[in-house]
Design a protein that fits this description.
Chain B: One of its GO terms (molecular function) is ATP binding. The complex is a heterodimer. By secondary structure, chain A is an all-alpha fold. Chain A has a single domain, classed as ABC transporter involved in vitamin B12 uptake, BtuC, CATH 1.10.3470. Helix content of chain A is 72%, strand content 0%. In chain A, helix 1 runs antiparallel to helix 9 and helix 2 packs parallel to helix 4. The two termini of chain A are 37 Å apart. Chain B is of the alpha/beta class. Chain B has one domain: P-loop containing nucleotide triphosphate hydrolases (Rossmann fold). In chain B, 36% of the residues lie in helices and 26% in strands. Chain B has a 6-stranded mixed beta sheet, with helices on both faces. In chain B, strands 2-1-4-5 form a 4-stranded antiparallel beta sheet, with helices on one face. In chain B, a hairpin with a 2-residue loop joins strand 9 and strand 10. Chain B is globular. The chains are: A mainly alpha, B alpha/beta. Chains A and B meet through helix 7 and helix 8 of A and helix 2 and helix 3 of B. The structure holds adenosine-5'-triphosphate and magnesium ion. Adenosine-5'-triphosphate binds next to strand 2 and helix 1 of chain B.
């Protein structure tokens, strides 16, 4: 039982990353109308921008040296506080890169959704190449101490680290913030209207170009956060985001492409299933983690057979 | 004749390579209701879309109060005091009624609350259904919402494409009464209507469009009495 619970915890952490990435992919699809294959690499860019910001900030805050392993104020400034700054930088840089790709590439192309999709593959290659040139192909990590399991969860028989808690809590906070933005602010209303019917949105006076920019910024910012959390719970490497892209697509399609709330649910479901696959062996099903993607995709296909437009249909 | 508030002068436009409007001349004065009628595919909707900036004129000019606005994007045309109710997909189905109205008012300076309240007074149905998604409305209710959304800016000129399409005759009549009431409050209206007789009945003047050109134009009453127009375009 506790083994299953452990897989579930791992699933929630993984889901957090998938959910953040899925929302952005679906949001951009809903307003821009194409599947953005550069989305995974946008995550990577966010993660690496945060890496740079993290070392810069911790050096600045504690006056050089690596004090992150230390305790006290220096430890806080060099560690968690610097990480918050780095997260923000990662999100902002991802947003800027996405807006730049819209301005420099997508908006210049008079082509179909398929043409834009192919263009986004090109954009993805460029982003990846830049990351590889700047940071090399080696694995890296945020220089934060890796604490052991938190004592509070020990009673439940599961190992939960501070990093796990950060990822899950921050994901929930970001998702909640997005919900408030979409439902209760003028920008959110205009985003939903633009996604519903762009011509009517323009006829109503919405400056849809600005809404498209805002959508890219929010979608890529969330992807950037997902990338940072992926780097936090595992390691950073230039293919980290791209390798996740298929799973993110599965989550988005499962939720109903174009639907933000569908992406949240799809991301959660796919993430948890993905990590629960190894748990099957404890129930006598001889299958291991290697097949997690396969099982997640099979379940996606099964759900789509029942609901062809995904869990949340078409609505945002 | 006074100066027109909206004028299309020799307008040509279309979609891609396909030309639809072949030198269209239409004028609308400040206190008028003008009705465009004509067969399917004549270019009536295309005329409204070109006037509103959803399509760019290939040649000719669109003038608002004497100023050229041809090719000005719709989000700017709205800010110049023009509203548009499209023929189809004219409400945001996934948004609530209240949200549709707020969206209609995004170009207003200051809040939209007072204007929403005014429109709720005028169309109590909308207040009653304000939290419902627009896609749950019936055809007639949807037409009222589409109309109210466009009125959020209190436009000087309103372009309406087939307000009575698909409505039962008495519901259509109510929509026409709403249109006439808005005109009484000082909004000039350029309306496309398939129910030509009902449309012309509330209009000052009418144009018959055929193949992207004006085939006839006259006072609405004269058009309805013209045996040739009646025979060719109004179904006898
Ligand atoms: N988005 C479009 N792309 C290409 N062609 C179009 C488009 N919309 C309309 N057309 C074509 O342009 C011509 C004029 O269409 P338009 O919609 O202006 O006609 P209409 O007079 O409004 O007709 P209806 O009474 O059916 O509404 C038609 O031949 C139509 O097929
Ligand atoms: Mg039409």
């Amino acid at each position: 039982m506790s083994a299953t619970l452990q897989y579930l915890v791992n699933g929630l952490v993984y889901s957090g990353v998938i959910v953040l990435a899925s929302i952005g992919l679906s949001l951009v699809y809903s307003i821009r109308g194409f599947a953005n294959f550069a989305h995974g690499d946008t995550m990577t860019v966010g993660a690496y921008a945060a890496l740079l910001a993290f070392s810069g900030t911790s050096a600045l805050l504690v006056g050089g040296g690596n004090a992150t392993a230390g305790g006290g104020l220096a430890g806080l400034l060099g560690g968690p506080a610097a990480f918050v700054v780095a997260l923000a930088v990662g999100m902002v840089v991802a947003a800027i890169v996405a807006i730049a790709s819209e301005r420099l590439v997508y908006s210049k192309l008079d082509t179909s959704a398929v043409g834009l999709l192919i263009a986004s593959i090109g954009v993805a290659f460029v982003m990846r190449a830049i990351v590889q040139i700047l940071f090399g192909n080696i694995q890296q990590a945020y220089a934060l101490p890796r604490s052991g399991p938190l004592p509070g969860f020990g009673a439940l028989g599961v190992a939960v680290t501070a990093r796990d808690v950060v990822v899950v809590v921050a994901t929930i906070a970001l998702v909640a913030a997005l919900h408030v933005l979409l439902q209760y602010t003028s920008l959110g209303r205009q985003m939903r209207a633009t996604s519903d019917n762009r011509d009517l949105a323009r006829a109503s006076g919405i400056r849809t170009n600005r809404i498209v920019d805002a959508t890219w910024a929010i979608g890529a910012g969330l992807a950037g956060a997902g990338g940072v959390f992926l780097g936090l719970s595992l390691r950073l490497q230039p293919l980290m985001g791209f390798n996740l892209l298929l799973v993110v697509f599965a989550a988005v399609i499962l939720g109903g492409i174009g639907s933000v709330y569908g992406a949240m649910i799809g991301g959660l479901v796919i993430g948890v299933i993905h990590e629960l696959v190894p748990a099957l062996s404890t129930y006598g099903v001889p299958i291991n983690a290697q097949y997690a993607n396969t099982v997640a995709f099979l379940i996606m296909v099964a759900i789509l057979l029942l609901r062809p437009r995904g869990i949340m249909g078409e609505a945002v | 004749m006074s100066d027109p508030v909206l004028e299309l002068d020799g307008v040509e436009s279309g979609y891609g390579d396909v030309q639809v409007l072949n030198g269209l001349d239409i004028r609308l004065e400040a206190d008028e209701i003008v009705c465009l009628v004509g067969p399917n595919g004549a270019g009536k909707s295309t005329a409204l879309k070109t006037a509103f900036g959803l399509l760019e004129p290939w040649s000719g000019s669109v003038r608002l109060r004497g100023e050229e606005i041809g090719g000005t994007p719709p989000e700017d045309v709205v800010r110049l005091g023009v509203g548009f109710v499209p023929q189809t997909e004219n409400v945001f189905g996934s948004l609530t009624i209240a949200e549709n109205l707020k969206i209609g008012g995004v170009s207003r300076d200051g809040g939209v609350g007072a204007r929403v309240e005014e429109l709720y007074e005028r169309f109590p149905l909308l207040r009653e259904k304000r939290t419902a998604k627009a896609r749950t409305l019936s055809g007639g209710q949807r037409q009222v919402l589409a109309f109210a959304r466009a009125l959020m800016t209190d436009p000087d000129v309103l372009l309406i494409d087939e307000p009575s399409a698909g409505l039962a005759p008495n519901t259509a009549q109510e929509v026409f009464e709403d249109v006439a009431a808005v005109n009484d409050l000082g909004t000039a209206i350029l309306m496309v209507e398939q129910n030509a007789r009902q449309g012309l009945a509330i209009s000052d003047r009418g144009y018959v469009l055929d193949q992207g050109r004006v085939a006839y134009h006259d006072d609405a009453a004269e058009l309805m009495d013209d045996p040739e127009v009646a025979e060719l375009y109004l179904g006898g």
